[in-house]
Design brief:
Blueprint (H helix, E strand, L loop, with lengths): L2 H26 L7 H28 L5 H31 L16 H24 L1 H21 L11
């Protein structure tokens, strides 16, 4: 996968992650307040979107065939699983740190992160984020999978025209 394709997939992943996260984030922060937690959650959403899109892009690049509706759904589901797993892990850590009362001025002990209230509360938030990302990947998979396939297919087409990376010299 070339650097240009990777960059396009990263940009697409950031947009995908933020698109999925903005609506729930705005609903949960009513009245709207810009807090450190909200910024961290949006950064986590962008990172998880990038991870999921790169995983789906690598799968599309390896398969070598164009994807139809079924292939797009598969790519979207794979993107949802990978992105949802990344989002769940990031949000689990973020929620555990937030609910334990950690601040930079008064850091808490590591054992306070394992209290049942903190551990299970953050686990269920992470589980809901995972289910939301997978459902988004499944429902919007045919559309988003086609975007991923189109980005990767453009790279395959350019590599095929270049005869394996060798330069075509024309003598005049």
């Amino acid at each position: 996968m070339s650097a240009g394709v990777r960059n396009r997939l990263l940009a697409l992943g950031v947009l995908w992650g933020l698109l999925l996260a903005v609506v729930p984030a705005l609903v949960m922060t009513s009245p709207y307040r810009l807090t450190g937690f909200l910024i961290s959650a949006l950064v986590c959403a962008a990172l998880s979107g990038c991870v999921g899109t790169l995983v789906a892009g690598r799968r599309a690049a390896r398969s070598g065939r164009r994807s139809g509706v079924l292939g797009g759904t598969g790519l979207g589901m794979l993107q949802g699983l990978a992105g949802g797993l990344a989002a769940a892990l990031l949000l689990w850590v973020l929620m555990a740190i937030t609910t334990s009362g950690f601040t930079l001025q008064d850091p808490v002990e590591l054992s306070s992160l394992m209290r049942p209230r903190v551990f299970l509360g953050s686990f269920f938030v992470a589980l809901s984020a995972f289910v939301y990302a997978v459902a988004g990947g499944l429902l919007l998979g045919p559309v988003f999978g086609k975007f991923i396939d189109r980005v990767v297919r453009v790279d395959r087409k350019n590599v095929g025209d270049d005869a394996g990376g060798k330069e075509n010299l024309v003598v005049r």
